[in-house]
């Protein structure tokens, strides 16, 4: 065989067998070594540095994150998150005292779906989706809410006991939301890898203050980020189960499965040349290649496929009682968010606010077409980007596509966008500004609804249109920033030089065992992973 040029130390580290998988699976508390130091936001972000003045100022040049930075993040994040959530409860104290009476609940900006659904009688008097509720002689109607939300509130009502009130169920929802928020902060810190302090962007956001208690969206948000953490640990089925549960509670969560499949497809495609060239890298032009030296065939059932199948099974099982008992109700619950016409918060509502004639059919068709086109555009971006995009970035883009094209965009949707934005775009000024816009949009929605109940009061239609446009622009800005760091990986502050894991090792949310194994096999045969742009610039190659 031809002699082989020895690789430099960085390249040897990149292809050391088993090294890639180990790096991909390490938690933030293991990333305080010299090769992957924990990022301190007060050193990197101007707004974080300025805000740190109340606790002694930014970290000094010689400061070290300590042996267990993750524990400090969890303590600080839990305390901050629970404090913000407690403030959200205080803001809703008026509604608790008046049992969410109308229109005061809009005037005091303390509206919540939970007491509204409970007080309607759909949950305390009938079994949701299986029994009708309504005035005698009207035939009644079925609950119009995602399966998971209906089953959850019905179960909380049973837990509250006989004669439970809307306030009792709301209080239980707050306790469940507190647990979900703690888990959300912890999962965000772990998925963030060497940037665990980015979890504070979630804990202290205005979105938590104004939107977290509007519904039960804290739970699907925690499930989505928990699924990302399970994926980073190589637990495909667990990730699928969590995403299935999240979809039962909040239907747009299914696009995170699509994001996972797209990113794994791109990373597997990037790894294929390394696999095919592994044997030829050590063989000369006239040498025969031993069949034992050929890289093994890829796994038939990819981990992403296992995740998707697990999510599908959980989602189907969650709606199975309804599907068996009444398939029309099942279909209606699945398609309700699409065929119900323009709802509050959506771009399609602008037509009604500005007196532009629209029809439900036209809105539905246009919404579906734009959603499909948006998903296709994101898929093309993933496959054509200079490097494999990070999973949270792709998930954020797909969620934004679905939300921006949906017939309804309620305020609580921001709760799921929040952790994905924190993992994708951990810029304090950007996310704080977006959070303020979301809080203002939520308040504007309640004041507009108050004006519908009390003429000549509340927010006029033109004012609500301004609020909606501001919110939509803020979401588009998040999407454009995500596209920018996808097309220009060097601008992504989360990425670190891929000197240890080969393709995609700079995505702490997705180790991709199959790709890592492929890189390891290439290393055993002498091939090296291509250096990233930053590493090339440092070495002068």
UniProtKB/TrEMBL annotation:
Coiled coil: none annotated. Residues 527-541 have a biased composition (Low complexity). Residues 1-33, 496-541 are annotated as: Disordered. Keywords: Membrane, Transmembrane, Transmembrane helix. The chain crosses the membrane at residues 70-91, 172-192, 199-229, 241-263, 303-323, 362-383, 395-418, 430-450, 462-483. This is DUF2029 domain-containing protein. It comes from Pseudokineococcus lusitanus.
């Amino acid at each position: 065989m031809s002699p082989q040029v020895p690789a430099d130390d960085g390249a040897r580290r990149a292809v050391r067998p088993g090294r890639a998988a180990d790096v991909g699976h390490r938690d933030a508390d293991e990333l305080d070594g010299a090769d992957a130091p924990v990022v301190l936001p007060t050193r990197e972000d101007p707004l974080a540095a300025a805000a740190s003045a109340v606790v002694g100022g930014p970290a000094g040049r010689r400061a070290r994150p300590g042996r267990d930075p993750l524990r400090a993040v969890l303590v600080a994040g839990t305390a901050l998150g629970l404090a913000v959530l407690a403030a959200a409860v205080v803001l809703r104290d008026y509604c608790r005292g008046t049992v969410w009476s109308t229109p005061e609940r809009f005037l005091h900006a303390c509206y919540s779906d939970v007491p509204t659904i409970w007080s309607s009688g759909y949950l305390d008097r009938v079994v949701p989706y299986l029994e009708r509720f309504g005035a005698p002689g009207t035939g009644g109607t079925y609950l119009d809410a995602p399966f998971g939300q209906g089953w959850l509130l019905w179960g909380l009502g049973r837990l509250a006991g006989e004669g439970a009130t809307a306030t009792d169920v709301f209080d239980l929802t707050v306790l469940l939301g507190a647990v979900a928020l703690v888990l959300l902060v912890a999962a965000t810190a772990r998925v963030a890898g060497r940037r665990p302090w980015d979890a504070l962007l979630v804990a202290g956001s205005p979105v938590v203050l104004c939107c977290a208690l509007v519904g039960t969206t804290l739970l699907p948000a925690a499930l989505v980020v928990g699924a990302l953490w399970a994926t980073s640990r190589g637990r495909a089925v667990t990730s699928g189960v969590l995403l299935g549960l999240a979809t039962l509670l909040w239907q747009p969560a299914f696009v995170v499965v699509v994001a996972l499949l797209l990113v794994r497809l791109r990373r597997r495609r990037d790894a294929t040349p390394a696999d095919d060239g592994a044997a030829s890298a050590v063989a000369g032009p006239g040498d025969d290649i031993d069949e034992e030296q050929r890289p093994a065939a890829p796994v038939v059932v990819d981990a992403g496929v296992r995740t998707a199948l697990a999510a599908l099974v959980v989602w189907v099982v969650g709606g199975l009682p309804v599907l068996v008992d009444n398939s029309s109700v099942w279909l209606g619950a699945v398609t309700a968010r699409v065929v119900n016409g323009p709802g509050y918060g959506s771009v399609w509502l602008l037509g009604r606010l500005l007196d532009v004639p629209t029809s439900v059919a036209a809105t539905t068709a246009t919404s579906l077409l734009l959603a499909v086109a948006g998903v296709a555009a994101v898929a093309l971006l993933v496959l054509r980007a200079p490097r494999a995009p990070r999973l949270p970035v792709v998930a954020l883009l797909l969620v934004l596509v679905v939300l921006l094209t949906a017939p309804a965009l309620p305020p609580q949707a921001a709760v799921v966008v929040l952790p994905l934005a924190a993992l994708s775009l951990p810029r304090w000024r950007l996310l704080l500004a977006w959070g303020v816009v979301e809080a203002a949009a939520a308040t504007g929605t309640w004041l507009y609804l108050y004006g519908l109940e009390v003429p000549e009061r509340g927010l006029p239609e033109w004012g609500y249109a301004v609020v909606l446009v501001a919110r939509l622009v803020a979401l588009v800005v998040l999407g454009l920033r995500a596209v920018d760091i996808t097309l220009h990986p060097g601008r992504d502050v989360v990425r670190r030089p891929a000197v240890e894991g080969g393709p995609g090792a700079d995505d702490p949310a997705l180790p991709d065992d199959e790709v890592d194994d492929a890189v390891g096999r290439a290393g055993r045969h002498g091939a090296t992973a291509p250096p990233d742009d930053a590493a090339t610039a440092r070495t002068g190659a």
